[in-house]
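TA notes, week 10

Several of you asked for a full example with nothing omitted. So below is the full record: structure tokens for the whole chain, then the designed sequence directly under it. When grading your own attempts, check the secondary structure regions first.
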């Protein structure tokens, strides 16, 4: 599996849409506005990059997509597009944890080897997972849903993600941090190892990873949270 060279990757889990294609030594990528625009712009971007790389969909060895956690709407968009492409082209899918992609982007850009990856979960919470690129490389198997004050950073580790503008004052102040997103290029770098470990699935088995099982707070929950912050 390590020889995989024809790969498509995309992520729509945040406010940005990221798409990349690798064909041997050729790498092409795009980033654009995500959110509500992602569902309309993702497939045209994929087609554009495949044409630029000189690939047909059916020639791909695998399609990697950000499975979550992240925006519920974004995760559903990525998953449904990946399933449709996988079914149509007969290509296996590679679900990639978005927090793993965050940690990989911090490793690639800043040389961070021990990363607490964080993504904004809204509703005054964060998604978090710990990644140690080793050796030996290891990851926290279960992403966590935390309040900013619950984030813990072991000595020698760094924070990475998209949460610092919103929650920076409530995070551990002594920790170094890197503002990064889960990019499609990070997913392409992770793909060979994930494929070698048996991470590819059939389209029917490709599902989002939500972590949180609800998208909105009740009126009572919002009032209780507001009261707790002011006491």
């Amino acid at each position: 599996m390590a020889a995989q060279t024809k790969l498509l990757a995309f992520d729509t889990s945040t406010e940005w849409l990221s798409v990349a294609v690798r064909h041997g030594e050729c790498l092409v990528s795009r980033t654009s506005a995500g959110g509500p625009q992602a569902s309309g712009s993702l497939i045209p971007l994929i087609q554009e990059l495949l044409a630029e790389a000189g690939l047909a969909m059916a020639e791909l060895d695998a399609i990697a997509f950000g499975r979550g956690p992240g925006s519920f709407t974004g995760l559903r968009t990525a998953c449904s597009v990946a399933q449709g492409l996988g079914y149509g082209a007969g290509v296996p899918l590679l679900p990639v944890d978005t927090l793993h992609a965050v940690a990989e982007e911090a490793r690639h850009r800043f040389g961070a080897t021990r990363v607490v990856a964080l993504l904004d979960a809204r509703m005054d919470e964060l998604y978090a997972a710990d990644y140690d690129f080793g050796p030996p490389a290891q990851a926290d198997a279960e992403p966590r849903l935390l309040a900013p004050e619950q984030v813990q950073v072991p000595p020698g580790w760094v924070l990475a993600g998209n949460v610092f503008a919103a929650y920076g004052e409530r995070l551990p102040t002594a920790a170094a941090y890197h503002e990064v997103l889960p990019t499609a290029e990070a997913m392409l770098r992770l793909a060979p190892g994930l494929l070698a470990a048996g991470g590819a699935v059939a389209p029917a088995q490709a599902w989002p990873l939500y972590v949180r099982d609800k998208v909105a707070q009740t009126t009572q929950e919002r009032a209780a949270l507001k009261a707790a912050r002011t006491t």
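The two ends are 55 Å apart (CA to CA). Use that as a sanity check on your answer.
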